[in-house]
Amino acid sequence: MKILVADDDPQIIRALRVTLGASGYDVITAANGAEALNQAINHHPDVVMLDLGMPHLNGIEVIEGLRGWSQVPILVVSGRTGAADKVDALDAGADDYVTKPFAMDELLARIRALTRRVPAATEEPSSAFGDVSVDFAGKTVSRLVDGRPTSVRLTPTEWRILELLVQNPGKLITRESMLTQIWGPNHARDTGYLRLYLAQLRKKLEPEPGQPRYLVTVQGMGYRFVPDGGAVG
After folding, report:
1. pTM above 0.90?
2. Is the peptide bond before 101 cis (omega within 30 degrees of 0)?
3. pLDDT surpassing 80 at residue 229
4. What is the pLDDT of residues 129-177, one digit of tens each?
5. What pLDDT was estimated at residue 186?
6. Which of 138, 159, 164, 228 is buried most, with the most CB atoms less than 10 Å from its CB?
7. How do strand 74-78 and strand 96-99 relate by DSSP bridges?
């Protein structure tokens, strides 16, 4: 089971990596909020454990970013003891809240409770739309050409955009959320990046790139994956 630990205190990172690793968990770490989102996208952890007071996106912003596309259990581990901080974190989408300093036995019990409470991820290992097949495990895409599956080469960034959209069928992914999750907070307003990459993806995957049926633009807001091609962007 993979746990993402996000905290800007290297001593806490080291202690949790050792203790959680000794308990059988595969530990992924992040030292700031932007890195936490990137690690979540790249590794799809089973539990996210994060501090609130991190640079480059604080804990609340990380929770909101995660909840835009994932229902992974989130455990906040913070030195902030005020009721307002707890309420803000839980309202943003956190599942539990532990204050520092904490007893390791209690922390492990909370992790076990979260993994029991939340059903296992139901993400499919593959998806298909039109004549396109997406293999999430293998990170490959193929398309039928003359009746035969033919590999479609995507850049790493194209893959991350496609994966984010296809794993959230029918859901609006805002431009800001997508930019932050893929490029980081410093690029949250660089919408030209998305237009460029979406145009490239459509050329490779859409039957008529100029009239997309699956990778649809929601004007002024963001993008949506339409599995049945029932909408035109």
Report:
1. no
2. yes
3. no
4. 999 999 876 788 999 988 898 999 988 888 889 988 998 888 888 888 8
5. 65
6. 164
7. parallel
Question: Cα separation of 139 and 212, whole Å?
Answer: 22
CATH code at 126-225: 1.10.10.10
- The token pair at 231 is 């909408």
Output the pLDDT for position 232.
42
CATH topology of domain 2-117: Rossmann fold (3.40.50)
Residue type (1 letter), 58: N
Rounded Cα distance between 230 and 79, Å, is 48
Structure-token pair, residue 143: 């398309």
DSSP string, 178-190: HHHHHH-GGGTT-
Could you tell me the residue ranges of all domains in the chain?
A: 2-117, 126-225
**Omega of the bond leading into 125 within 30 degrees of 0 (cis):** no
Q: Which two tokens stand for residue 173?
A: 């992914």
* Backbone phi, psi, residue 69, to 5°: -150, -5
Please, what's the b/e burial string for 134-172 (b: 16 or more CB within 10 A of its CB; e: otherwise)? bebeeeebbeeeeeeeeebebeeebbbbbbbbbbeeeee
Strands 148-152 vs 215-218: parallel, antiparallel or unpaired: unpaired
State the sign of the Cα–Cα–Cα–Cα dihedral 161, 162, 166, 167.
negative
CB-CB contact of 111 with 3 (8 Å): yes
